[in-house]
Amino acid sequence: MSLFSKLFGGGKPKPEPEAETETYEGFRITPAPQTDKEGFRVAARIEKEIDGEVKVHQLVRADTLRSLDEAQEFSLRKAKQLIDQQGERIFR
């Protein structure tokens, strides 16, 4: 990174701190809201080990919230809702 980038705040944006992973119905959910011009976009990573292989589904919604804490909470809620509705089918 150049001196000017350091002085004037250029460069890559700082990643958001990762929320704690929660286990729900055998799935691991990690809220991962994405920074957006409107605030934080609702997103989460859903994982489950099936037949010895870890399957991953990236949940990303159009919803945005102003607060990171609210976005993490809402992301967790939406991931649980998706698991309740689709179960392991989310990995297809």
Task: Explain what this protein looks like in three dimensions.
InterPro entries: Transcription_activator_HlyU. This is Transcriptional activator HlyU. Residues 1-33 are annotated as: Disordered. With 92 residues, the chain is of the alpha+beta class. It has one domain: Double Stranded RNA Binding Domain (2-Layer Sandwich), CATH 3.30.160. Helix content is 27%, strand content 39%. The chain contains 2 helices and 5 strands. It has helices spanning 3-8, 68-86, and strands spanning 22-24, 27-31, 34-36, 39-50, 53-65. Strands 1, 2, 3, 4 and 5 form a 5-stranded antiparallel sheet that branches. The longest helix has 19 residues, at 68-86.
Topology of this protein?
Elements: H1 3-8, E1 22-24, E2 27-31, E3 34-36, E4 39-50, E5 53-65, H2 68-86
Which descriptors would you attach to this protein?
92 residues; Double Stranded RNA Binding Domain; elongated
The helix tally amounts to: 2
Q: List the uncertain runs.
A: none
Helix/strand/pairing category = alpha+beta
What gyration radius follows from the Cα positions, in whole Å? Answer: 16 Å
Short description:
This protein has helices at 3-8, 68-86; strands at 22-24, 27-31, 34-36, 39-50, 53-65.
